Every structure is written in C-alpha cells, then in structure tokens.
Amino acid sequence: MSISEERKQVILQYVTGKFMSRLHSNIGPAVNEKQQSLVLSSPTEDSKMVLASTKQPVQLYSKEFFGLCGIGGILSCGITHTAVTPLDLVKCNTQANPKEFPGTIMGFRKIYSGEASKLGFGSGFAGLVKGWGPTAWGYSVQGLAKFGFYEYFKWLFASWIGDEKAYKYRDVVYLFASASAEVIADIGLCPFEAVKVRVQTNPAFARGLMDGMPKFISQEGFSNLYAGIGPLWARQVPYTIIKFMAFERIAEAIYKVLPKPKSEMSKTEQMGVVFTAGYIAGVLCGAVSHPADTMVSKINKLKMEGGLMTKMRAIYSGTSTVPGIGFKGLWAGFTPRVIMIGTLTGLQWFIYGTFKAAVGLPTPGSSGKPGAKH
Q: Which residues pair with 323 in a beta bridge?
C-alpha cells in the first residue's frame, strides 16, 4: 500500500520537528509550542527559522564555556609548539649536546646539510622536524588542561572570595589559578616530553612517538616517563604564572592607555592587544624558566640510577668521569629559547583569542574594570 506524497511530507515534518526539539533540549531551553508549530508547518524555510531562534550564546562559566576554552588551548599550544619543532630541536641539542651543537646557527646548518647524520640525525626539512609527533600530542594535552583549568580556577577562586576582593587581589587569583592549572597540565605533558627530548637528543633511539613511547617503557619502565616531572614543574609552573599574570596585567595596562575602552573596540583591535601583551609576557617567561628547561633536557637524556636530586647534582656538579655544566651551563641555548618562547606565547594568545571570538566568547585580557568578563 503506497503512501501519498502529502502524507510523506507530514511524516517528514513531524520527524524533523521531534528531532529539532530533542536537539534543542540538550543545548538550551526547550523549543516552545510556537516554534514546534513552525517546524510542523514547513520542514524547509521554517526549520531554518527555528535553528536561528534556538541558537543560544554560550553561558559564561558553564561547562560548555570551559570546554571551549580547553579546545582553544589545544589549538593554541598544539599548533604553535609543533610549528617551532626545528627551533626546539636545535635548542635541546645545544643544551644536551653542546660539543656537537655549540650554537644555534651551526646547529641548523649541521642538521639541514646532513653533516649531523653521523649522529643519527636526518637531513633537510625532515631532519629538522624530528620529534614533531610527541610535541604535537604532548602540547595539545597540555593546552587543553592549561587554558581550560586556568579559566575554571580563575572563576572558582573569584567566586569563593567575591567580585570585589577578586578584583582587588586579582594578581593572587591569576597566580593560584595558573599554577594549579599547570600542575595538572604537566602530568599530561610529561610522558610525551620525555619521549620528545629522547628522540631529539638521541635520534637513533627511535623515529618518533609511535615507536619511541613503547621502546622507552619497555627499556626503562613507565615510571621513568615521569623522571623529569620535578624539573618540568620547576620550568612550567613559573613560566605559566608569568604567562598568565604578565599577560593579564600587560593587556590591562595597554587598554588603559588606548583612546577607547575594550567594549568599544573591534575584535581585530582587541586581537592586536592580545598578541602584543602575549609576546611581551612570553619573553619574560622564557628568561625566568630557562635554567629549569636546561635541566629537563639533560635529565631526559641522562641514563643513570638514582633519584631526581641525584641526577640534578650529577648534571650540575659532574661525576668522576663527566664534568658538570655549572651555573653557566644552565643558560645554554638562552637566545633561541627566548626568541622561540616570545613568539610562541604571542601566537598562543592570538590563536586562543581568535578561537574565543569565533565561538562568541569574550577575548582574553581584562580591561581592568571590576567584574569585566574575559
């Protein structure tokens, strides 16, 4: 028994209406009766009207808000760190293999030309992107937690003490929110960082993440993936505190001297402030966290028994057979890292801000007014 075209249309309209009602109930207030009648009356043009009318802005500090901030963090950290893999590769080797890589320019030349092939490095562009896999995965995981939890802890701590105190002591809120977020983020990053440093400073160890991670675990055990967690926290927590505190305060200072308030600026103008504040904050971050970064590179290359302090002491002061790096050695690779971190941080804030603006969230950086949303 055939169904008439008219009846098919009625069934299709009914199913479409039910689907739209169920979808909207999951993302916002239920579709009201008037909207349902629009769906039932026309499954084409009126369905578009329902979609437009049911689209709700993301509620600030909701689960969806924090989730989107986390996604912004994935894009922000994952893309930028992967993009600067060549510079990171050279930086790690100037720290871990200073005899073979005494300087940044020479390091690039040696790898790209194939001169470093005797050490296990590739040549050309492929040689310079060694370690991109663990970099991409590790810093995407870190970005998810870093930005998502920063926004969450900033809101949580502010809600505990109230808006007025949160503004008055905003530096304290920024400090504890960023530190708490980074401690969590580094737990996710640490295993990938260990593999990254190992394949970059000892390229014969593995091709990348897929073979490097299983080999690392089989040879040294899973727990050794976290051998560098102490220096990683020592590097990343101060870095992140400055990254967020300095950014928030620099952005606030810039907005104060501009001729119009943030609320009247276009998104493009706001993003100019975001990148500028992010770059300046990044330079400060790179300088403060550099000694700990050197230790991370050394520890993840080192193969010896003993705890964290034993390894750090051996690296700094040396052993009976290997001389220590001393205070001067802690600053090896300083110039490329500061350039890298400054650019990296500026771009991270820019990508994060662009994503937030694209999904309808306020751009990062406070205008300095109590209760300002950012």
A: 318
CB 225 within 8 A of CB 190: yes
Q: How many helices (H) and strands (E) does the chain have?
A: 16, 0
Residues 6+ apart with CB under 8 A from 103: 94
277-330: pLDDT as tens digits: 999 998 888 888 788 878 877 777 676 767 777 888 888 887 777 788 888 888
Spell out the alpha helix ranges (H) of 28-84. 33-41, 45-54, 63-83
Which residues are CB-neighbours of 302 under 8 A, at least 6 positions away? 311, 314, 315
In degrees, rounded to 5, the angle at the alpha carbon of residue 361 between the alpha carbons of residues 137 and 45 is 105
Tell if the pTM clears 0.90, that is, is over it: no
Residue boundaries of the structural domains of the chain:
5-54, 63-358
Report residue 103: phi and psi, to 5°: -155, 165
Helix (H, G, I), strand (E, B) or coil at 319: coil
What dihedral angle (degrees, nearest 10) is formed by the CA atoms of 361, 366, 371, 373?
Answer: 0
Tokens encoding 80: 């930028």
Count Cβ atoms below 10 Å from residue 274 Cβ, excluding itself: 26
Cα 174 from chain centroid (whole Å): 17
Residue 73: the pLDDT is: 98
- Whole-angstrom Cα distance, residue 172 to residue 190? 26
Instruction: Map residue 286 onto helix, strand or coil.
Output: helix
Q: Where are the beta strands (DSSP E) in 121-184?
A: none
Other CB atoms within a 10 A radius of the CB of residue 309 amount to 9
* pLDDT reported for residue 20: 45
Quick one: pLDDT band at residue 8, thresholds 50, 70, 90? very low
What's the topology of domain 63-358?
A: Mitochondrial carrier fold (1.50.40)
User: Is 258 or 313 the better-scoring residue by pLDDT?
Assistant: 258
C-beta neighbour count of 59 within 10 angstroms? 10
